[in-house]
Amino acid sequence: MSDTTVDRANQTGNYDFDPCVEINQGEASSGIRASFDGLLQDAPGCSTSIVNGLSQQLIHQMNLILPDALVSFDELDVELEDAAFPFLQPLAKQGLQQAIQERGIKMSINSAYRTIAQQLLLYRWGIDCGYPVVALPGQSNHQSGLALDVADPDGWQPFLEHHGWRRLGDFDPPHFDYVGEGTQDLRDTAMLALQKLWNKNHPNETIDENGGYGPQTEDALYRSPAMGFEIAA
Ligand SMILES: [Zn+2]
């Protein structure tokens, strides 16, 4: 379940990795971020910043389910892409902060926390937007608040690796995972957050609050509003 503490040092191999560099390039070249107030199933590509409203609700709801599951690192010396949410688990943030302090320069970040709404769009848009085959919502390691894609990964590698982060490698050059102890697998919590928000807004059409990703939850996610639900926590 969502509150299980896991040692991810030996679990990284269980995660489905998306080649982040292609996703980040697609996001960065998506041009104007037009506002869109429809459902995810109709959202025009290719920037996931189109679901920022819903994404913020999902992150907030996760923190209500598990207090301080995700903390903002916005106040650190970082520069963020439009679709990047500056959230990590507390210990991962601490490691990031120490790495930035040690190197003493600003870090440019292409992607950190990615919500299940963003992941669904990446999955749906796929190759039409130049994205690689990406994981289904709930499977990406960016949904646990333990992943970062950084610019200048060669430069940052020694500093991040001093402080609990590990570079994934050639397969996905900008991607780092936090592998220190004391973290949690938040992917079920991310799904539960959507299920709770959906049920609050659809009392006559409720879905199971089980933290899993099945056809019912996928259908609800596709029919969720990009700008966020009317009723939020
Ligand atoms: Zn990544």
Explain what the structure shows.
The chain is an alpha+beta fold. A five-stranded mixed β-sheet has the order 3-5-6-8-7. A two-stranded antiparallel ribbon has the order 1-9. 43% of the residues are buried. The chain contains seven helices and nine strands; from the N terminus they run βααβββαβαβαβββαα. The protein is globular and about 55 Å long. The two termini are 22 Å apart. The protein has one domain: Muramoyl-pentapeptide Carboxypeptidase, domain 2. The N terminus is likely disordered. The longest helix has 15 residues. Bound molecules: zinc ion. The site of zinc ion has 6 residues, from strand 6.
Q: Note the run of SSEs as H and E.
A: EHHEEEHEHEHEEEHH
Class from secondary-structure proportions: alpha+beta
Give the name of the CATH architecture: 2-Layer Sandwich
Question: What's the number of structural domains?
Answer: 1
Q: In angstroms, what separates the terminal alpha carbons?
A: 22 Å
Strand elements, count: 9
Extract low-pLDDT stretches. 1-15
What is the alpha-carbon Rg in Å?
A: 17 Å
Annotate the secondary structure layout.
Elements lengths: L4 E2 L13 H9 L23 H14 L5 E2 L5 E3 L6 E2 L1 H14 L3 E5 L4 H10 L21 E4 L2 H9 L3 E3 L7 E4 L4 E2 L2 H15 L13 H8 L11
Parallel strand pairs: 3-5
Antiparallel strand pairs: 1-9, 2-4, 5-6, 6-8, 7-8
Helix pairs in contact: 2-6, 3-5
The chain binds zinc ion.
The site of zinc ion has 6 residues, from strand 6.
Describe the structure using short key phrases:
two-stranded antiparallel ribbon, alpha+beta, 233 residues, five-stranded mixed sheet, binds zinc ion, Muramoyl-pentapeptide Carboxypeptidase, domain 2, disordered N terminus, 7 helices
